[in-house]
Amino acid sequence: MADEKLENESKTEVDLEKLNDLFVYDEFGRNIRFSEIYKHQKTIIVFTRHFHCFVCKDYIEDLGIIPPGHLQAADVGIVAIGPAPFKFIKSFKEETDFSYPLYTDPDRKVYQALNLKEKMVHGDGKDNKHVKQSLFMGTLKSTWNALKVGEFEGNIKQQGGAFILGPGDVVHFAHIDANSLDHTPINDLLEIAGVAPVSFPKDKRE
Question: pTM for the complete prediction?
């Protein structure tokens, strides 16, 4: 069933032409043409929800522990993109210990071009291999952090997704998250991209 699901998602249509004139932003507010991210290298691109989303933080933490050597051996890159203002990039990277490139799309134009869902839907998380805390405590912590900062660091209705693109106009895989817990297991992304697997607590690998 899992293999069938991945096969169907690999056939999800992505209109790359819509992306050619769209930009994301780095932590200094500089714009980067989205298509440049995967122009020269096959790249795993993960779109998150708002930066207070504890599920996304857990996922990005795990994405960040992939050894650079694994990626270099396969000539694959990793990039994460969030819907928050760029001023929150630095703190989000520090909170998740994520050392790979992280950009933002505050106007969510790339999100919309990729047909990522804008709907407040929560899953049960039973099949999520990267959630490290209870849904109740995680939600409580997310809300408290948002109250401390004074804003949610991104549209709270926006869902994410995962794509493997490039080099150039090539789509290897596309997954649109149906809800806040519908992340593609990271090892599935690595397998499709031709990268060696990583052992996670809920997804043991050799």
Answer: 0.85
